[in-house]
Amino acid sequence: MKASGLKRRRIAFLAARGQIPGARRAANGYHFEYFDTREFRCWIADRKIAAIKRNKKNPFEWPKTYLLRPSVKTNVPLALRICFNKWKGDVLEKYPLFEWPVEEVINLKRQLRPFHELWQQINNRSYC
User: Fold this and answer.
1) Is 70 exceeded by the pLDDT of residue 72?
2) In whole angstroms, what is the distance from residue 59 CA to residue 49 CA?
3) Within a domain: 35
4) 29 φψ region: left (φ > 0), alpha (ψ -120 to 50), beta (else)
5) Is residue 34, in this structure, part of any structural domain at all?
6) Is the separation of the CB atoms in 122 and 70 below 8 Å?
7) Total domain count for the chain?
8) CA atoms of 118 and 121, how far apart (whole Å)
9) Does residue 75 fall inside a structural domain?
10) Which residues have C-beta within 8 Å of that of residue 107, sequence separation ≥ 6?
11) What's the pLDDT band for 127 if we cut at 50, 70, 90?
12) 32 forms bridges with which residues in the sheet?
């Protein structure tokens, strides 16, 4: 649970209130069990991004290791997600999509297609 960026007490607090997907009380009635499900992995990823935003002065700067070629140890998807969230905040909040010219929307769809294809490949293999 360290990957979520939360402290043990906070995790237990959230689990007791049913805010962690798939968490249930252990047989002793005191501790919680966390099962490795798709929703649980997504919850951890969301919490990790929130922790990065919370702990940094500029939440959209990340270590240079994120920019290296993809490997098991680099977290390139997280870096892309942080960058995409920054773009959404900077652009889409000021200029909603329904105000964009049709040509710009088509261009955006074309640019996002590789990310959607990658998402589909990952989604078909039942990862988060």
Assistant:
1) no
2) 9
3) yes
4) left
5) yes
6) no
7) 1
8) 5
9) no
10) none
11) low
12) 25
| CB 117 within 8 Å of CB 124 | no
Burial of 95 (0-12, 13-18, 19+ CB in 10 A): exposed
Per the structure, the complete domain to which residue 33 belongs is given by 1-55
Structure token pair of residue 37:
């499900």
d(CA 34, CA 8): 13
Look at the block and give the residue holding tokens 């990658």.
118
Q: How confident is the model at residue 93 (pLDDT cuts 50, 70, 90)?
A: confident
Q: Can you read off the two tokens belonging to residue 10?
A: 């906070």
Q: Which pair of tokens denotes residue 9?
A: 């007490």
Answer yes or no: is 74 within a domain.
no
Structure tokens at 77: 């998807």
The first and second tokens of residue 8, run together, are: 């043990």
Q: How far apart are CA 67 and CA 80, in angstroms?
A: 10
- pTM over 0.70, yes/no: no
